[in-house]
Amino acid sequence: MKKIVFLAALGLLALSMASCGKKSDKGAASAAESATEDPSENSLGATIQKIGDGSMMVQTDDGKSYTFDISKVKMDPVWTLMPGDEVQIGYNGAEPADGMAVNTVVMSVPFEYSSEDYNEDPTIYGEITAVDDKSITIREQPDERADVDEGSSQVSPESRMGDSYTLERAAYGTEVTKDGVKVGAFALVSYTGDLKDKAVAYRVCTEDMMEDEASNVIGVKGKLEKLEESNPDLPILYLKASDGTELKFTVSDDENLKKLAKENVGKEVEVDFADSLRARVSSATNIKPLH
Q: CA 90: distance to chain centroid?
């Protein structure tokens, strides 16, 4: 669903760019709006294979590969292009040519929206063995499906305990708990990164809240810095944590979210979202002021 919404919003963006002097191969209506447009300007849909040093290698749906000069293209600062992104490329001429300089590169579908890896962030469940404001250590819960090892008549619970992992606690992190995040409690921890190398925990939901509706909501906190509406069909919310970390969220087709964002600019809020913080821009579902 989010891919469909994103495509619709980006379609409107492409049309608005065409009306400013860029004509796509499907933009006949745009040509009527501006008699000064170059009739030889066209667009090409492709997937980025490699990008860097002022050049971009792409592949089209029919398997053709091109390397374009993008050194003079004004890029959207919200979306730092990466391999796997589907883009629309504006160029002069009847046909694209390898090595040619292009005029525009517009995001069509971010790589994250086509990858299941970005549907949600990983979690770890287990016992909290150490915790403070900076870090939390989780010892994974025993695997109840392996109560007895093959060839062994009795296995102690201690021998079935999982590994322990220490995660940094994010400044934008949230807690879902009744009795508190403390040693001895069991909790489900959402995180980014590698458990074995600098993982960052951003949400801790303790066992006493697992049956509560709040356990289904994933959110982060910080100061709502601004709502960027340079593209009114794809507004971006900027959230800044107390340590300066900046997170970005789309509020694309939800008028209520746009209203909440405008009302809370400059305030401390919790932003709930539906996918992954590893994405360049996550999808906001709610904004709640913090009192």
A: 26
Look at residue 258 and tell me whether its pLDDT is greater than 50: yes
Q: What is the pLDDT of residue 160?
A: 55
Distance CA 264, CA 259 (A): 9
More confident residue, 288 or 78: 288
Question: How many domains does one find in the chain?
Answer: 3
203-226 core/surface letters (b: 16 or more CB in 10 A; e: else):
bbbbbbbeeeeeeebbbbbbbbee
> What stretches of the chain show up as alpha helix (H) in DSSP?
2-19, 28-33, 255-263
CA atoms of 213 and 196, how far apart (whole Å): 31
One domain for residues 51 and 24:
yes
- Domain termination residue (choose one: 86, 114, 142): 114
For the record, the structure tokens of 208 come out as 């006493």
Which residues on neighbouring strands pair with residue 137, listed in sequence order? 130, 166
| pLDDT at 154 (0 to 100) | 54
Does the pLDDT of residue 28 top 50, yes or no? no
